[in-house]
Amino acid sequence: MPNYAHPEVLVATDWVKENLGQPAIKLVEVDVDTRAYDAGHIPGAVGFNWQTQLQDPLRRDILSREAFEKLAGDAGIAPTDTVVLYGDNNNWFAAYGFWLFKVYGHADVRLMNGSRVKWLNEPDKPLTTAKTSVTPVAYKVTRLNLDLRAYVTQVLEASQTAKFNLVDVRSPDEFTGKVIAPPGMSETAQRGGHVPGAASIPWSLAVNSDGTFKTAEELRATYFDQKGVDPKKDTIAYCRIGERSSHSWFVLKYLLGLQNVKNYDGSWTEYGNLVGVPIEKA
Q1: Which residues lie below 8 Å from residue 28, measured CB to CB, with a gap of 6+?
Q2: CB within 10 Å: which end of the chain, N or C, has fewer?
Q3: How many other CB atoms sit within 10 Å of the CB of residue 249?
């Protein structure tokens, strides 16, 4: 991989094809729902529905430890397995899954570079609609990494003190408040704009036209030189519902090697609905 800080967390589609069927490598497709997975997926992959399986819809929260253990165990994933995630929307939801696996301390987690669409566009890559047969296992979380998660109190501190890089990864129109959600997405916040002090660095600046990540040199030029991210500061990334910010969190932490990067999964759906907190629109 092109000079990334942690190249081991990113695998190519060819690597995935060469390792199909390896018992200790578990493929997981993570989409906003399972319609894409049902239409055709990588042989051996299980499908996770972001809306119903990777979050607690009643509490608007991440899965509890117990729920995560059950999800992973029921998918046949053991704590010692290599988990390779890929999905729709340029790996937005797969990156969220990567972040969640890391929050719950899974050692070996990787993203497939280029996501589902790159696999579909390569004629030598197989697809299947067959349901993947798995043998459930007992999965036990032994380590929590809650420092990977930002809370609204930390976002308010970042906004007020400028001690953090505060990165808004949404589109420019969402940042300015012209729109609240991307086209086709429900509007879950009641006002548009951004957290005061945040820099607008859309997630899309990190990827090529085929969905693969740009080189480390290109990423450094974008984030550090052009957009002013200070690599010596702690960083908080946010979007609307936490999935695009997971993608940028992955870039900043693993590809560029920043030491303390947090994903604010509450994102604009939380901050934009809070009473009494300031926003900016330009």
Answers
A1: 45, 46, 47, 48, 75, 77, 83, 84, 85, 86, 94, 97
A2: C
A3: 33
H/E stretch holding 28 reads strand 25-31
Q: Would you identify the CATH topology of the domain 149-271?
A: Oxidized Rhodanese; domain 1 (3.40.250)
- CATH number of this structure's domain 7-146, picked from the four choices 3.40.50.970, 3.40.50.2000, 3.40.250.10, 3.30.499.10: 3.40.250.10
- The 8 Å CB, 24+ separation contacts for 132-137 are 132/41, 132/43, 132/44, 132/45, 132/46, 134/46, 134/74, 134/75, 134/76, 135/76, 136/73, 136/74, 136/75, 136/76, 137/73, 137/76, 137/77, 137/78
Which pLDDT belongs to residue 189?
60
Residue 151: CB atoms within 10 A of its CB come to: 15
Per-residue model confidence (pLDDT) at position 187: 66
Q: Which two tokens stand for residue 51?
A: 């809306």
pTM higher than 0.85, yes or no?
A: yes
Q: What CA–CA distance (Å, rounded) separates 43 from 132?
A: 7
The conformation of residue 213, written as its DSSP 8-state character, comes to B
Catalytic residue numbers read 239
Residues of the chain with pLDDT under 70: 1, 184-189
Q: Which residues pair with 46 in a beta bridge?
A: 28
